Amino acid sequence: MTLGQLFLADLVSDCLVQKPLTPRFGAYSQSNLAGIRIYFLHCVKIMLRLYEHCVKISKKSEELKVGEVVVDVLYGVIFLLIGLFSLLSGFNDGGNLMATFLRGGVLAPWVIFPILVGSIALGPLLFGTAVSRTIAVAIVNFDLTGPWVLAVAIGSAVLTLFITWRFRIPTSTTMALAGGMLGASIASGDARFIHWSGIVTVLVGLIASVILGFITAFVVTRALWTILAKASSSSYRRMKRLQYVSAMWQGMAYGANDQEKAIGLTALATMLWIKGFHYHVSWIAVSIPLVFWALGFWGGGVRIAKTVGGHIIRLDPMNALSTQMAAAVTVSMAAFWGIPVSTTQTTDGALFGTGTALNPLKVQWLVARNMLLVWSVTVPLSMVVGLVIMTLSRLT
Fold first, then answer.
1. Taking each helix axis from N to C terminus, what angle separates 343-358 and 196-228, rounded to the nearest 10 degrees?
2. Domain spans of the chain?
């Protein structure tokens, strides 16, 4: 409630208890000194009543200002955590996006960087922001839980992503965020505000994206090599340049899905901060997370790229192309339906699909087992982190 609203509420409530002092001009129509004196006294009483309310409001405003400062600081922490979330997403997801391009041997890192960042910025414009809305309002009703639960949820995801990145383990930002939201909401006693249908949608989307990425990559790889068997060497060289197209497509798909997690969090925090009633994605909510993501991508994505790109299968330009196209198709479809998926998982699934289409015996299935293990513990780990942080904060 603003100071003006607080003033009016106090004044109205006081007037309901006491007899209003508003003077009746008809009672002082006579132009005599006594009538003027009585009218003047009524005016003075009104001024005194207003002064009393001003003193009361000034005392309440001090408390209100302190509360506003605390809330502003909390939202500042939330925006900082969103920046860190985007930064670590650049480390993790940027590495997965870069991996197939590096192993394909067609594009250099300094070429991949501007193509991916530029295409990611175009993703929300071309495919819409349905995924960001799912993240913001379809998993937990943060409008009722309050900003502290949102801060703990994002902080839990950030800590989980940092741990996995520190040990060079590719993981899913979607899983980390969903787990953090669940843990923070349950520990705060606000489990009733969790939309379990949204949780099911996220989990089903994550599993389906891996399977669909595998199948699509398998089909595309078989079809591509069937075409290449009848193509000349010059045609082969020209087809290698399609990686520029696949890089842009995969970047736009990522921007319309994975990147919209940070976009949704930024738009949600802004809406709660200004006490808005409608979810809206502004250009600020799109651009600020992208800046942090680009910094993370350039600063640490190459480390993850070396892990993902070479430990599953050995890629050549055409195999890299089929993997990229399969991942782009899968993530684009999910973005169109507003289903949050993981480009990391989808790319990994596509890599295994490509390897299976070429030669299943050459696929590093041990790496697949390790990745499945990491994915299976990401949600519980982030959830436990959220539970612990929220529980400790409530005790203090």
1. 30
2. 3-60, 82-395
